[in-house]
Amino acid sequence: MKSPHLFVGTALVLVLAGCGVSNDFSDLQNYMDEVRARPKGSIEPLPKFQPYEAFTYSAAAMRSPFQPPVKIDLARQQKGSKDIKPDETRVKQFLEGFNIETFEMVGTLSNEGGMFALVRGAGGVHRIRVGDYLGRNNGRIVAINENAIEVVEVVPDGEGGWLERPRSLALKERS
Questions:
Q1: What is the pLDDT of residues 48-71, one digit of tens each?
Q2: How far apart (Å, rounded) are the C-alpha atoms in residues 33 and 27?
Q3: Which superkingdom is the protein from (predicted)?
């Protein structure tokens, strides 16, 4: 009786013999001859380094594109006064570097020193009092009560004068 391993081994030898292993490397030899025939130093130079140019955002002081535009009725537009103008010699307070729309009143404090308002915005909660300034339009706080902060902003009228514009920040109930 013949062993099955002998049969499998014989079949494997016959299959490998039928593959026709040849020593024809002519295509590889042609490719190597082509590479050797190329001129020396044909490596492409490295691309030129482009220096980084910093981008400066110049529209920070403009109206946010996500807020509706202010509609101005030219017929009823108030005329500014040359007597009203912001105090340019005054040292700016920290909260004047932010738009007033970013602030919301969250509470009040009172002690023997008077009443203070708490506003959230500009990265935290800030304590303000009457006489402090808030927002980019020279907004001076004129009154604080338990429900709102009254602010008077000094804004240009577009014709060389200035207008006093009252604003109010209402108390924001729990959020």
A1: 888 888 888 887 777 778 877 766
A2: 10
A3: Bacteria
Helix spans in 90-135 (H): none
Give the burial class of 71: count Cβ atoms within 10 A of its Cβ; 0-12 exposed, 13-18 middle, 19 or more buried: exposed
- Distance between CA atoms of residues 122 and 98, nearest Å: 7
pLDDT at 88: 82
Element (H, E) at 162: strand 162-170
The letter for the amino acid at 38 is R
Buried b (16+ CB within 10 A) or exposed e, 32-68: eeeeeeeeeeeeeeeeeeeeeeeeeeeeeeeeeeeee
**Six token digits for residue 30:** 């042609």
**Strand, helix or coil for residue 165:** strand
Domains assigned to the chain: 94-170 (2.30.30.830)
